[in-house]
Amino acid sequence: MLDNYYYPNDKIKIWSKSYTLLTLCGFFFFISTYLFLYVSTMHLVQDKGMSFSEASLLISSFGIGLFLTGIFNSYWIDAYKRKSVCQFSIILFILSTIGFLYTSNALLWIVLRVVQGVAFSLVIMTTNSTLVIDVTPSHHRTAANTSFLWLSRLGMLIGLASAPLLSDIFSFTELIYIVIGLAFFSLILTFSVEVYFHAPLDPPICSLDRFLLPRTFVPAINLAGIAFVLGTLIGYSTDYLFFAFLTLGFLVGYMIAKYKLSTLSLRSGFETGGILMILGLLLVILTLQLNIFFYYFSIFIMGIGLSISLTYILFHFVGLAHHCERGTANNTYVLVGEFCILLGFLFENSWTTEGSERICYVDMLVILCSLIFFEVVTRKYYNRQDCR
């Protein structure tokens, strides 16, 4: 299956015009989404007097929307043009974001966050799980999905790293306009994407196709652990340097996974990432009060481990997908990841204070349990399946 990811002598490249535009669309859309997560949480805490626990609970209602309309995914992309569904979803995200400017009611904020979650899930389904596959040659689709998701996660971290800096310069209203502008730019990018006509397949109105793939639920448990840790890191700090070094580590981790660890088995790749994450957390605990340089270096190591772990667990999802199930496997990967990031974000903000080392011990325990589960259950489950 990793042969799909590395074709050093293949003259057909994945970075076509349409694929590049879709990837940039995902990149800017994730910046917009996670920039809003930070600025809205801080707005509720600093301007509305909420605790971090209350604010994160409200903001995490986004996770409800991720699964609210998924059973209709297959029907929508068959009944309507796939690119049009993507564009409508981004417009829905923009309109719901505008709504935050005109209300301070907590219940309405929850409703708007749920709508944002619905729009987000549709954007991901139509881009990474559908259009990216449509515009990419079959033997390059693993590489295409991996690059799309990695750049989207990079956009997430850039959004989080830039948020503290932008918050010092702009008001909440101005920041909302920046969020809307980034989402609008991602919408503009989709208009030049060229997608071939697909004959209608007349699927049922409700199905799990393009939504969730039950066969991937076992590795999804491992993904849940890694994503939960990422969520706790998002809630752990409001320091832009923290996210800058995490972003740098994420970038280096992807380069290592692609160019240095390409011959590793899926088992070795995931376990390498997990071990690096534990090492990074241990260094955080040891250097929290000692040396600022080594503190940020430990965050850098965490970023490397996260990147490698997320990349190799994605390969498990793709490998478990049968014919025409790749899109559903990718969508499962994103939805589980996003939901568990929010769970980690909520847990950290509800249980610890900023800079506390307690969350590091929890994260190490979660990663250790994930590694044990991978070794005892996931690896054997994967080897028994008819994988790609």
Task: Explain the overall architecture.
By secondary structure, the protein is mainly alpha-helical. It folds into 2 domains: 16-200, MFS general substrate transporter like domains (Growth Hormone, Chain: A, Up-down Bundle), CATH 1.20.1250.20; 212-388, MFS general substrate transporter like domains (Growth Hormone, Chain: A, Up-down Bundle), CATH 1.20.1250.20. The protein is 75% helix and 0% strand. The protein has 14 helices and no strands. α2 (52-59) packs antiparallel against α13 and α9 (217-236) runs antiparallel to α14 (358-384). 53% of the residues are buried.
Summarize this structure as a short list of keywords or feature phrases:
388 residues, mainly alpha, Growth Hormone, Chain: A, 2 domains, 75% helix, disordered N terminus
